Amino acid sequence: MSPYLLHHDPRSWDAPERFQPERFLQEDKPTSQVFLPFGGGAQSCPGSTAALVLLEGAVRAFATQCSLRLQSSPLPQPFPSYALLPEKPTTLTVGAPTAPA
User: How far, CA to CA in Å, does 46 sit from each of 33, 79, 85, 87?
Assistant: First the structure.
């Protein structure tokens, strides 16, 4: 099963094409049958625990020291390949952190 197809299945996700990280904060979080960030079973990623720990620290450091601004318009469309890539080149500008609203 393709994780990309599974993660974009409208039978399992409300508005699967939208970036909604808050959906993981709800009580009815996605189950392992519909969300496979590191694969599953014999094909699961052996470094998933280390990846999550490192990613959390990197995102925290980046979010407190930088801001990102998407320079492309409209939003990039996904192109499923050996990895999930943008269909066309996408440009991000890194800047100083923005003040909270």
Answer: 19, 26, 23, 29
